[in-house]
Amino acid sequence: MLLIMVGVTAWPLVRTIWLSLSSATIGGDPAQWVGLDNYLDAIRNPEFQESLGRTLYFTLVSVGMELVLGLLVGLMLNQRFKGRAVARALLVLPWALPTIVNAMMWRLIDGPEYGALNALLFQSGLIADYRSWLGDPSVAIEMVILADVWKNYPFVALIVLAALQTVPEDLYEAARLDGAGAWTRFLNVTLPGILGPLSVAIVLRTIEAFKVFDIVYVMTKGGPLDTTKPVSFVVYQEAFSYLRIGSGAAYAILMAGFSACLIAGYVFLLRKQESAT
Asked: Which has the closest alpha carbon to 63: 148, 180, 184?
């Protein structure tokens, strides 16, 4: 197992780091050692800076909405009501859809001529004319976030639902006997009981959201006017469009570093909350 992990994880990482310190290109001159020049060029690149900020916005908003929505849905599905089994089964459907299929579906929903979103809002009297949601730079990234949230909030909800099964019922009974209300029981019984699994869900979703590529590529291809272009697009273009493998590897290492810092911040806040409760 250790040899397999070294082969599929450690060696590619070491190889990528080595490439990031060189001038390697596809089909070009032999690679030369350039040290940290690729990293410095990436940090000074306005396109990389803008895409990084855009990716952080996408990650924070998307994961935040998924956390809130997944937590609410998980708590709701933990209650006893008629049709609960059917509701739990339906919850899995958005998450089970391939990301490409989900992106194509939402691209059709947001369509400027025959999209279901325009039809719904127009017939409800909320808009006067049909609108190109994915072609509007002011709202395009929010529409991509909406599609990503719809796809991935069931993942958080399922983890919350599974974690709720492990919280002892007698703790709730004791809290009720002490006169604790619903909000107090949530803060002092439910949240501490699910905080561990919830932190795992947040970390996994943060990693996935920060390296978003496929859903953006299908829905907008980074447009309009690069307003939805994530940092993964810049990495892809640098390495495979401009054929600069060395600088593309540096972009990828920086992207992984920023993702690790973001995850560390999440874990720190959750551990702080866990110790406080």
From this structure: 148
What is the phi-psi region of residue 212: left when phi exceeds 0, alpha when psi lies from -120 to 50, beta otherwise? beta
- Give the C-alpha separation, 180 to 174, whole Å: 9
| Domain ranges for the chain | 2-276
Stretch 213-219: mean pLDDT, rounded? 92
CA 50, CA 56: separation in Å to the nearest integer?
Answer: 10
Torsion angle of C-alpha atoms 10, 12, 17, 18, degrees rounded to 10: 110
Does residue 243 come out as left (phi exceeding 0), alpha (psi in the -120 to 50 range) or beta? Answer: left
Q: How many CB atoms lie within 10 A of CB 106?
A: 25
Compute the distance between CA of residue 154 and CA of residue 127 in angstroms, rounded to an integer. Answer: 30
Exposure string (b/e) for 29-57, b if CB count within 10 Å is 16 or more?
A: eeeeebeeebbebbeebeebeebbebbbe
Q: Is 22 helix (H, G, I), strand (E, B) or coil?
A: strand
Look at the chain and count its residues. 277
Q: Is the dihedral of CA 242, 249, 211, 7 positive or negative?
A: positive
The tens digit of pLDDT for each residue in 180-215 reads 888 888 888 888 888 888 888 888 898 889 889 999
- Enter the DSSP assignment of 187: I
**Mean pLDDT across the chain:** 87
Q: How many CB atoms lie within 10 A of CB 136?
A: 15
Quote the CA–CA distance of 232 and 209 in Å, as a whole number: 11
CB burial of residue 192 (10 Å; 0-12, 13-18, 19+): middle
Evaluated on CA atoms 98, 100, 105, 109, the torsion sign reads positive
Name the residue type at position 274. Answer: E
Its CATH class, for the domain covering 2-276, is: mainly alpha
pTM for the predicted model, two decimal places: 0.86
Which stretches of the chain are assigned E, i.e. beta strand? none
